[in-house]
Write a structure and sequence with these properties.
The chain has one domain. It is built from four helices and no strands. With 116 residues, it is mainly α. The longest helix is centred in the middle third of the chain and has 27 residues.
């Protein structure tokens, strides 16, 4: 797999994960619908979504869609799953771990078949 593709996928997936964490944190903050913490988290997440959208469009011009999208998406799923456990105390189930393993295996198979 192309190192530049992998590094860009990791960076984009981490940024997307951060935006999800911020949105979740904003949803858990305060009782009032409009409050400073909630607006701060939500606005920050929206700003990150805008950056992701722009950078994603740029990366689609540089890499094959059939490889880049599955790698980026699977890393996003893995990072969001991990952040849910770390930041929000969500549980780990054998079914969830099996799903993550299957997703990663699929990406490895897809990217190795596309490399030839």
């Amino acid at each position: 797999m192309n190192l530049a593709l992998l590094l860009n996928s990791i960076g984009l997936a981490l940024t997307l994960t951060l935006s999800h964490v911020l949105l979740r944190k904003g949803g858990l903050t305060g009782d009032a619908y409009i409050s400073f913490p909630r607006m701060y988290y939500t606005t920050s997440a929206l700003f990150l979504y805008l950056l992701i959208f722009l950078y994603y469009g740029y990366l689609l011009q540089r890499f094959k869609l059939s490889i880049f999208y599955p790698v980026y998406t699977s890393l996003s799923i893995l990072f969001v799953f991990t952040s849910g456990i770390i930041f929000f105390g969500e549980g780990i189930t054998p079914r969830a771990v099996s799903g993550i393993i299957l997703i990663l295996l699929g990406v490895v198979l897809l990217s190795s078949s596309q490399a030839t």
